[in-house]
Write a structure and sequence with these properties.
By secondary structure, this protein is an alpha/beta fold. It is about 30% helix and about 25% strand. The chain is built from 14 helices and 18 strands. Helix 1 links the parallel strand 6 and strand 7. Bound molecules: (4S)-2,6-dioxohexahydropyrimidine-4-carboxylic acid and zinc ion (2 copies).
Length: about 425
Amino acid sequence: MSIVVKNGRVIDPASETSAKLDVLIEGDRIGRIAENLQGEETIDATGCVVCPGFVDIHVHFREPGFESKENIATGSRAAAHGGFTSVVTMPNTNPPIDNGGMVELHNRSARETACIKVWPAAAATKGREGAEMTEMADLKSAGAVAITDDGSDIPSSWVMRRVLEYANMVGLTYLSHAEDHTLMEDGAMNEGFNSTRLGLPGMPKAMEEIAIDRVIRLAELAGARVHICHVSSEGGVDIVRRAKGRGLPVTCETAPHYWTLTDDAIERFGPNAKMNPPLREFGDVQAIKAGLADGTIDCIATDHAPHTVTEKNVEFQLAPFGIIGLETSLALGIMGLVKQGVVTLERLVDLMTRRPARILGLPAGELREGGPADIAVFDPAAEWTVEPDAFASKGRNTPFAGMHLRGLVKTTICDGVIVYQA
Ligand code: DOR
Ligand code: ZN
Ligand code: ZN
């Protein structure tokens, strides 16, 4: 069975392609990328971009234990809706994914219920308690693609150093949720003018800056690579930029909400604008954009963190941290980055495909003849309004409800199968 995606603009950063071409899919592979191709079935991509399926190396699918928030089936459909064909799930499930058996359980569920590729990151410490290291060689042979205690940081520098050493030894990258909890335990939002005005306990940016600086120094000591999750602050971007300037193997990601919103949004959207790290201030938004423009920030990840309406519909301070992101990520990139001249459309695609795939060595993120037919087709000009009830995710916790956006995913293809069609 062959499908040809016709008349679109093919953007493939890996081969430096940005041209009007057709893509022929044969079975689960890309057969050819050229002009005037024919296939048994045709997808008309006139006016659309045809690119590698997006890759998100930071999502929470909540399986096992929190399936009322999301599961691998619904999370994967939300991903397909957003143009993603590969995602990496965080291990802060219940129980946490901290041993080989749990990794296998995750992968079995992914094989049986997911419509796209769902790769697991496994915990760095047993029970995510920050004390005893997990068996990283077992985790790797069971199929884990990264190591992280995401949701919280590892308080002990001694433990973190060992985690970095062992993760590096088995060839897995440590994903750092960089947050110094000891500086502020019960913060609910960024510490600053707005937290004072609203009378909410603040989380100073120093919580992130200190933790990023610490993990980079420990990675240097351990001779290990490190990837910093969800950088949100100007200081955080600066520390990563300086580390890269010293030639250290450090990479980092940011999420769409950090270049789209400031903590002003909390007054309007309440708990749906509550996440960790928190929304910051204007200068931080500018610094995130500068970091994306100059390459300090290596990739875009959503930190898709679904929670139920009941859990979120409480006083701000009591609500759980996290917002969903898979179904709005592309459009927020087009609106906040491409339309504002921060990055080109080609570079936005790069930040959402090849770059994240390369950080974890995933076989994804490029269009190659003979390679997997993982493809996103999107109309960069199409306008739409965010309606959370239309999401495939179980989560409705987004501050972008009602927002008018541009950039709409039309078709998502994973291993040659159409997994989403608008
Ligand atoms: O906003 C967040 N949500 N930050 C985290 O660190 C955890 C995540 C979650 O699991 O909900
Ligand atoms: Zn995190
Ligand atoms: Zn996370």
